[in-house]
Each structure stands twice: as structure tokens, then as C-alpha cells.
Amino acid sequence: MHVPTPVPVKLADVAAACGLSITTASHALSGNPRVPEATRRRVLDAARHLNYRPDPAARKLGRKAPSADQGIYQTAALLVSPREQLYWSSNEKPWKTVMKDRLRSYGYGIDLMTWTQNPRDWTKLRSVLSGRGITAAILAADGFDTAVLPAQWDGIAWVCYSADPLRRHLHNVIIDHYSDAILSCERALALGYRRIALFLSDSKRQAAAHEPFVGGYLASAKQFGFEPVLEWMNHAWVPADVEMLAQRIRSNEVDCVLAESGYYLTLLSRWGVLPPGTGRAVLDQIDDSSSKFAGIEQGRAARNRIVVDLLNSHALNHEFGVPEHPLLVSVPGRWQDAPSLPPRSPRV
Q: What is the pTM of this model?
């Protein structure tokens, strides 16, 4: 028995069902904020009822494959600083793929864009987002002050992807560095280490009082009764600086180093300032390049899923602009063992 091939529903059919032009229907499906909300809902309902699937040629316009249940193309913007653009565009890490796949599951493609703190750049960017019909954006805010975000941008749902817990005027998903520092200290103590030192970038020194790593580390020292040793590192140090650091490490009898990144542990080893047998762990493992060290794997894949889920929820509920009650979601990391932090016999 011959079964006729179903005729695919076209955009013109959706537009006709709503009594609208094809252009208006297209703008409604893409989320263009200029389309009235009642019209947009009418078009969405018609598209779902007719089981409309966009033409594959739309992919040439930079759209991604829609989800199976929605069947509607949308675009989310991922806004990064100029210094991070190359990193995001050229390095395909698994945790980045999670973000793209999660967005695709909700029917979103993704546009990578750069942003700065210059208000004139924000005005231009707002025009670009509006012109592309983008109504959802992820703001990678590390290293920038998001206070420049205009409050009147009420046509876009925002989620801030940041390591800084102080940017709370947006919905913010952060890494829980405070808890990660406590977990690292607990693990080092359980392995027999007693003189644990924390090494951070010198750039964080001025904001040390608000630095989550410092807060968690000092809380651990108080709770578990060890003397804190806090060091600030600079990759541009001259030999005299390195020698002074080596003297402080020896005088404090440091037997374990918790460093902000694998890069700093590599510097310490290159400088030869750590006594033999010193344990080493990383507080912020962001990719496979640091996997030779024990420490915290920051769960960026989990964070990316949460970021996208939160963004999609706010977009569906039409929660646009700067929120009245911002959410702060903290994502803890996961400890991973490695030979750099072997068990150590407790001191007698």
C-alpha cells in the first residue's frame, strides 16, 4: 500500500492561519521584540498546531537545529569580553559543548558577541540584538562590571555567567569558590597535611576581603585549627622576589600548597621554591591541562546546564530586563585526587 509523503508545512501556512504576513510571522517566531505579545503567542500556537518545521535553508542564516518538541528556531546571544572571544570561539571544551547542546535542546542557536563597558558599545549592541530578534542572552561577566547594563532592556532575558558573587543585580550563576576552598582544606588535612598555604594572583590582593577563596580558606583555618599562610603571586617576579618567597615557605614550614590555578603550581615548581614532598592542589581546574594536579574540578558542564535552564525559564515566563528579585545560584566543584597530593603520615 502506497502511503503519500506528507507535505511539509510552510511559513506561509502559519501566516495564513493567523491572518498575518509572512514577514510578521517570521518575526514572531524568531522572538523579535517589536512583535506584540498577543501576536507572537498566536503565531506560536499556530506553529505548534500545524507542526511547523522551519525550512533547512534557515540554517544558512546562522540558526541551529530546533528541539524536537518546539520546532521553532530562536537565537541566544553569548556575550564575552574581547580578551575572551578567541578562547570561546577557538577552544571546543566539553563544558562549552554542553552549553551549545543544552541551548539546542530548547530550540536555540547561539551567537557569540563581544561586549565592553563603554556605554556607546552597549547602545550599538542593543541595536544588533534587536535587529536579530534576540530575546535571551548569557553574559560572561568575569572581569567586568555589569552595572553598565541598561535597566530599560526589558525585551531580553539575562543570565550572568560569572565567577564573581558580587554581581547580584542580574540572575547570576557562579562557582562556589568559598565551599571549594573549605573542601580542599578538609581533603588536605585528611591526607595528613598540617601547614596549608593558599597562593592566589597578586591581582586579587586589593579585594582580598571579598575573595571567596580567601574566605573559605580562613574559615577552614579557624575551624580546623591550623595557622593560615596566605601568599600573593606575580608571574613577573624577579629572582629576588622568588628568593623571598622561598624563605617564607621554609620559615612557615609549609607542607601543602593550594593554588588558584595549575599555572601557579607550575611556576612554583619551575622556581624551585617548594621543599621536597610538598603537597600541591589546584582550587580552580578549568580544563584538562591542569588534570595532573589534585584539586577542585569546577563543574563547568553542570554550571552551563544550569545557566541555560535558567535562561530558558525566564524567557518562557517573559522575565525580561534587570530582574526585580535577582537569583544567585552557586555551583560547588568536585574534588579529584592526583599524585600531586599523596597521603602523608601525620606528624607525631
A: 0.68
